């Protein structure tokens, strides 16, 4: 397993060849309450570039909650399938924004959608996506799995397995790992250095939805949860620095 349990040693630049970075759509809002904040998108793109420059092949999945969230639409009376498809389209918008920011930095990027829309991005073809990664292009997987009732967490775990990623890096806002309860609401919340998949499920820890955790567990795919709002956090963990929680075993 690439990450050791001793966080003082940490992973080195050569530890990982290919990883999945999963971030929420809300991460792109910055201090706004809705939509995209260009400086925030730029900062995250710079984080991705810094890891790409280490020689790591990067897959990405970005949620759509900053534009539209299927579950909230369904809760307000919208038919669930329609609401979920609208959420998938929101992830495509976020992916295109991130692609633009990355390519401004000189990082070749491909947006790959589970719902065909040839004018704006590529359809998902596994072997083509693998080839993009081998050519050191960042691949941003959009539109979830292409099916309603599945979250972008599940999509990230599915694509990470299909692309043979060695870990999923979960970039969180406001927290630097997995806690036993919400640290934003409870001052006595305790952060885990390591936690098992089963404990995440049994204790209902806020990492990913249950389907995604089960899929990661069944394929022995570790999750690395870290604070996305800490400058240099993504690269820092790969370089053996920073704070994170490893979900495995």
TrEMBL record:
Keywords: Allosteric enzyme, ATP-binding, Cytoplasm, Kinase, Nucleotide-binding, Pyrimidine biosynthesis, Transferase. Pathway: Pyrimidine metabolism; CTP biosynthesis via de novo pathway; UDP from UMP (UMPK route): step 1/1. Residues 17-226 form the Aspartate/glutamate/uridylate kinase domain. It catalyses: UMP + ATP = UDP + ADP. The keyword ATP-binding applies. Its main location: cytoplasm. ATP binds at residues 22-25, 65, 69, 173, 179, 182. Catalyzes the reversible phosphorylation of UMP to UDP. This is Uridylate kinase. It comes from Parasedimentitalea denitrificans. The gene is pyrH.
């Amino acid at each position: 397993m690439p990450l050791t349990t001793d966080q003082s040693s940490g992973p080195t630049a050569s530890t990982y060849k290919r990883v999945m970075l999963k971030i929420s759509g809300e991460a792109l809002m910055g201090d706004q309450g809705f939509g995209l904040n260009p400086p925030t998108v730029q900062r995250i793109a710079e984080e991705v570039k810094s890891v790409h420059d280490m020689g790591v092949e990067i897959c990405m999945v970005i949620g759509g909650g900053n534009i539209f969230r299927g579950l909230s639409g369904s809760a307000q009376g919208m038919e669930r399938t329609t609401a979920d498809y609208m959420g998938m389209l929101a992830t495509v918008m976020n992916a295109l924004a991130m692609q633009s920011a990355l390519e401004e930095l000189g990082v070749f990027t491909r947006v790959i959608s589970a719902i065909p829309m040839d004018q704006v991005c590529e359809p998902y073809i596994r072997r083509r996506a693998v080839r993009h990664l081998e050519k050191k292009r960042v691949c941003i997987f959009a539109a979830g799995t292409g099916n309603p009732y599945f979250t972008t967490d599940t999509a990230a775990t599915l694509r990470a397995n299909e692309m043979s990623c060695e870990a999923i890096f979960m970039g969180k806002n406001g927290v630097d790992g997995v806690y036993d309860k919400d640290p934003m609401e409870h001052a006595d919340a305790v952060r885990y250095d390591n936690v098992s998949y089963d404990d995440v499920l049994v204790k209902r820890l806020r990492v990913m939805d249950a389907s995604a955790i089960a899929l990661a567990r069944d394929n022995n795919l570790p999750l690395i949860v870290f604070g996305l709002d800490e400058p240099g956090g993504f690269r820092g963990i790969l370089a053996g620095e920073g704070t994170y929680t490893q979900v495995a075993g």
